[in-house]
Amino acid sequence: MNKSIWKYITTDQCNDFLLSFNLLAPTNLSPEKQLACLYAVSNSIESHYTTTYLKKKTGGHRVIHEPSPLLKKIQKNILVHVLEPQACSVYATAYQKEKSLLDNAAPHIGKKQVYKLDIDDFFDSISFTMVFQRAFPREYFPPQAAGILTQLCCFNDCLPQGAPTSPMISNLVLKPFDDYIGQWCRERNIAYTRYCDDMTFSGEFNVKKLHHKVRAFLEALDFSLNQKKTKLLATGKQQIVTGITVNEKMQVPKKYRREVRQSAYYCLNYGTASHLKRMNEGNGELDPETYLNSLLGKINFILSVNPSDKEFSLLKEEISKLLSHS
Hints:
The protein is an alpha+beta fold. The protein has helices spanning 11-19, 31-43, 69-83, 101-105, 128-134, 143-153, 166-173, 175-186, 207-220, 254-270, 272-278, 288-305, 310-324, and strands spanning 49-55, 61-67, 113-118, 191-195, 198-203, 231-234, 240-241, 244-245. The chain has three domains: 1-85 and 124-160, no CATH class; 89-120 and 168-250, Reverse transcriptase/Diguanylate cyclase domain (Alpha-Beta Plaits), CATH 3.30.70.270; 254-324, no CATH class. α5 (128-134) packs across α7 (166-173) and α10 runs parallel beside α13. The mean pLDDT is 93.
């Protein structure tokens, strides 16, 4: 579609365009009141977020901006009706219903070297302008509507971590990068995948040349690399991609499996409450039911990588029974 066609759109037509996405559904509001609500929220977006700080295991804090119930409802409808119908790059493996951590790890099995790079301050680096241009492109969205949609998805002029729209938008923003770097790597027999801000490359290649290529393109898009998280894993080292070992086959690392096995043993033999007390976690921060659900999630992760693991299949049954009686 010719971009210039939108210069003829009227305000009423733009409003009808916005209404067609049912951003407040389900609702009994009239079209006029729906529009008034959308414009009111977009013009006072700061008042619709609550900021919290979560401690990172590696130190520091992760800033989460939680949208209000009304804004979250609008954003979920934007996600379903506006963003998800758009295609992400085949190299992006996060935040998509049909893909998982396994899809991110599988291309890197049995490779001579695995090179891992990380995008620094990923969500904070995605600006209002990037969202406006790449999540709601002029080919399909009139500028007035794109502006409203962008306002509804941004906070403090960047992509908020905590909004349901942010993950999908990040994939759309990085699509030009993923497609270009993916094609460049494929021509050189290099496997490439990206899971959120984690990029993984594997095969036989000149590390310095690849690093320079990736860094230069990212910087051209106003992103930068987190040099502290750059890792080169040769064949002789344990090659872990998004929590999965890929040296010879996909497997959850031994340390992770050992810790899960040990936690399950203590819960089954001494009781969950006793185990939490022993871990000094029984101080109200974590209750037995929450802990068991978390443990079951870890077991399910192990089984998703290796469904035929009899030991953890049995542990799943036993922890599930324990959870049903908690």
